[in-house]
Specification:
The structure is a homodimer. By secondary structure, the first copy, chain A, is an alpha/beta fold. Chain A has 2 domains: about 5-190 and about 300-390, 3-Layer(aba) Sandwich (Rossmann fold); about 195-295, Orthogonal Bundle (Rna Polymerase Sigma Factor, Chain: A). Chain A has helices spanning about 135-145, 160-170, 190-205, 225-235, 240-245, 265-280, 285-295, 310, 330-345, 370-390; strands at about 20-25, 30, 35, 40-45, 55-60, 85, 90-95, 100, 115-120, 125, 155-160, 180-185, 250, 265, 320-325, 350-355. In chain A, the strands form 5 sheets. Chain A has an 8-stranded mixed sheet with strand order 1-4-8-5-11-12-15-16, sandwiched between helices. In chain A, strands 2-3 form a two-stranded antiparallel sheet. A two-stranded parallel ribbon of chain A has the order 6-7. In chain A, helix 9 (about 330-345) links the parallel strand 15 (about 320-325) and strand 16. The longest helix of chain A has 21 residues, at about 370-390. The radius of gyration of chain A is 21 Å and the shape is globular. The N and C termini of chain A lie close together (about 10 Å). The interface between A and B is large, with 61 and 61 residues.
Chain lengths: ~400, ~400
């Protein structure tokens, strides 16, 4: 039951140009918070070909600042954020799988979010966008699944907040996925993680341009606050070692001068400032607040007496759990707790800790052992598909 | 040669009321940067009694946000920041030692700093205060030493940035101290540390109330930025474990509501916000920028071909080096590098790593093993003093 792969057999292993699609969901969606969205739209990309049995679809779930453009090259010439892992012959092989990646609601890259028009008011949602939860993202992705007439995902895959969605899928729709690949994730955030997110939010909210969240009405933008938020995030996604290796204590510009302003700037500072400023051009502040709160409030076992094994008892899929040795924001310990809970629940789980000095960011970066682990696991998934079609 | 301890034999182990003193240094002080301070004053406290040989004086060096009120209770009823360790019968025993702690220049608690009047202009220094270095703090402390007619410190003691001063003393004035106690310090900051400081500075500088550093002229105060800076600092001085133990995922107020604003706030967030706001009332923004840059630019071995053993070759004192197991801002590795370098230089060094889950903050907090280590070391120092007086 392999699909026709003629379209994706490009010799350079690249998907080439990608085109985003849109799905309009013109019926209300109830949210965990009790509010509902009267309608919403999802922008998404797909790669590879859906087989006749419609059984080879993989859902990719993005993290905090991700979007739908996960692989290939889009119209602006931008390479997808996980292109190293998705494409013909790659770990997530588009010769075998039909890969779907939506931008999630509440975000700011085309799907319904704070910058979208609220049909009830005729104005942008802004800070009145309801407080969505991971479960709401899964629900919205379920609408997309129905839209694409997919009965069951071959796998749901995600890193960081994406891994939380994969876990949430396994509990919310146990019979709608065969495999969950949970990368650099946690069943819930630690107090330290929540604290970093809180500082990021306060940086945004205390920017005078934020205007209590109504910056769109005022035609301002809390760029400084958003840059600071990103700098905090970015720094905590990297390891001390990786930063040391990359920047050490190199100083740009002059040496110590006679006024404070003449001190040279450390390269790590220029780098972070640049990353922060770049991010503040492309991301929406209300989305950042919304999605970091979603992260903070995710708690896999909350509805199961705080017993993760009891929660995972409802799962029917198999799991691959991946962690990275130098990730201190979502440490290997978090992945090991997921793995232990799955084992306690009697579920099939494979776990691999990848040696890397890249911190949390490692989940996005090329790494041969990581690629091999995902590739081998998905070969098994692909083989299962072929067997079930015999 | 024990001093008259009648004054400090209070039964409750407390120093009681303390009174700050001031030393006016009415001659120019050359700074590392090439500028000079035409004059400066230092505010300081002392405890215990200087013996006749003037040999039992201990200098305490404060860290980033510290002040001269290190022990006892001041006129405002505030207990000193290291009162657990300094007092009659305590680890730094004021029955035996004469303890001196100045507020350092560039800070904002009474010694000359950005909020002080520049005698050359008749206006507050503000952001034109010269970029002081750790070496400048040592130089200024040397003026205080002369002012107090102390020939040689029995010990120079400090944690964090205070430990950097103790190390700097051992190189700048090798024959002016017998012992250096270097606690939770580093020979230089890592790129990660510099990056956290950079984000803190940008938070201050991007506050519209900062006014390019001229907020005193505008009668504004970048309180939001300073609060954010402190929140970042404070969070990184704590360990993930300590935060988890103290706050876990406890939520204040309501549950998830129908708008984003109705989400409960995590207690760790309230705590950090409170700490940030409190700090922004008492600290000066230009001082914060100045002193974090001082931290970033400290590099013990920079003038010694980046060879710390070569640098420490100039030291004549003995060393106690202390680290804390869960300190990730100035990790045990940093203290072990100091210890190894001292050993390579053939210096007498004792090293102890204290088990603690309190992170970098552990250096300020009660801990019986830590207290015992400092106490035992200083008993030796005290015994040496008695022997040398026989």
């Amino acid at each position: 039951m392999s699909s026709d792969s003629s379209l994706s057999s490009s010799p350079d292993n690249s998907l080439g140009a990608t085109v985003p699609q849109a799905a309009a969901i013109n019926r209300p969606m109830d949210l965990v918070c009790g509010a509902n969205l009267p309608s919403h739209s999802l922008i998404f990309e797909t790669y590879g070909i859906l087989n006749k049995a419609r059984s080879n679809a993989i859902l990719i779930c993005h993290a905090l600042s991700g979007d739908h453009h996960v692989a290939g090259i889009n119209a602006e010439g931008k390479v997808g954020w996980w292109d190293h892992y998705i494409g013909p012959g790659k770990a997530i092989d588009t010769d075998k799988f039909f890969v779907v990646c939506p931008n999630n609601i509440g975000s700011c890259f085309g799907s319904t979010g704070p910058t979208s028009n609220n049909p009830r008011t005729g104005k942008a949602y802004g800070d009145s966008f309801p407080p969505i939860q991971v479960r709401d993202w899964v629900e919205s992705q379920k609408y997309l699944m129905d839209h694409l007439k997919i009965e069951c995902w071959a796998a749901v895959i995600g890193g960081s907040l994406g891994g939380m969605q994969a876990m949430c899928w396994s509990l919310a729709y146990p019979d709608k996925l065969k495999h969950a690949v949970v990368i650099a994730a946690a069943m819930r955030l630690s107090a330290q993680n929540i604290a970093f997110n809180e500082i990021a939010r306060r940086a945004i909210q205390s920017d005078v341009e934020f205007k209590d969240g109504h910056y769109l009405d005022h035609e301002t933008s809390p760029k400084q606050g958003l840059a600071l938020a990103r700098m905090i995030g970015h720094l905590t996604y990297l390891s001390d070692d990786a930063l040391g290796r990359k920047f050490g204590r190199l100083v740009n510009g002059g040496d110590i001068g006679t006024t404070e302003k003449e001190l040279g700037e450390f390269e790590v500072a220029s780098y972070l400032n640049y990353q922060g400023d770049k991010f503040s051009q492309r991301f929406d502040a209300n989305s950042y607040i919304l999605i970091t709160k979603m992260l903070d409030h995710f708690d896999l076992a909350q509805d199961y007496n705080d017993d993760p094994a009891k929660a995972f008892g409802h799962a029917q899929c198999q799991f691959l759990v991946v962690s990275f040795s130098s990730d201190w924001r979502f440490s290997p310990l978090c992945s090991e707790q997921i793995t232990d809970s799955l084992m306690s629940a009697g579920k099939a789980v494979s776990y691999i800790k990848i040696e890397s000095d890249q911190g949390h960011d490692a989940f996005l970066l090329p790494n041969s052992r990581y690629q091999k682990a995902v590739s081998l696991y998905l070969s098994r998934v692909s083989n299962e598909l072929e067997e079930s079609s015999l």
